[in-house]
Amino acid sequence: xxxxxxxxxxxVDGARMSLFRNKGSxxxxxxxxxxxxxxxxxxxxxxxxxxxxxxxxxxxxRRGAYETTDLHRxxxxxxxxxxxxxxxxxMKDDDRQAILIAPPKVLGLMRKHLPxxxxxxxxxxxxxxxxxxxxxxxxxxxxxxxx
Length: 147
Known about the structure:
By secondary structure, this protein is an alpha/beta fold. The model has no long low-confidence stretch (mean pLDDT 85). The protein has helices at residues 44-47, 71-91, 104-113, 116-120, 135-144; strands at residues 8-12, 16-22, 31-38, 54-56, 63-65, 98-101, 122-126. 24% of the residues are buried. It is 34% helix and 24% strand.
């Protein structure tokens, strides 16, 4: 895949994000790291230790348990939404195109929160986990990717 000059590339998952800009040309891309974020996401057991609630039937003595909230997944989803806001911030004042690289669940979550004008400027959405990788790794992925 050829990447034009000045295209933004965001590689994100539930705990890491790297935002690059192509400072090179289509033939020789050079990805410059603009922003890097990382959040330590503890396990659900570390985040909360309360037992799920119980429900009682109105007749009889049957009981049921409520499902336990996955606090780890919730923290990862919150991080992904924060990164969607950061992505919007970097794209809102110009006509720049962008590429979004994220695992399928994160990609779907972010896609829902991106405005239409920004989604239309996405030249690729790649469902891979490349967050935390170097600029050379991301450039290699993009080189092999067919748009």
